[in-house]
Amino acid sequence: MNARTTQTVVHFPSAFSLPGFDTPQPPGDYLVDHDEEVVDGNSRIAWRRVAAFIHLPAIASRASTRHLVPLDPAFLDAALAQDRTGS
């Protein structure tokens, strides 16, 4: 099975919370790892996201300890959309 991990940066202009987080996280830029596996197809290569992890705390934080927290990509997408609309 072919797999890959891609890393992106997401920006939250205001504090946010995701299921499984003990406390809201401050605004800022956060690294997110997306684990994907190849989907077998006849003519094209496609990738399916199977897991996501967010790096805590935010990139700009000077904390000496960092954590990699698993999360549901759908919850991350919903939190980003909610942050954009200000709801």
UniProtKB/TrEMBL annotation:
Quote the protein name from its UniProt record. Answer: Uncharacterized protein
Q: Which organism is it from?
A: Kumtagia ephedrae
The record lists the lineage as: Bacteria, Pseudomonadati, Pseudomonadota, Alphaproteobacteria, Hyphomicrobiales
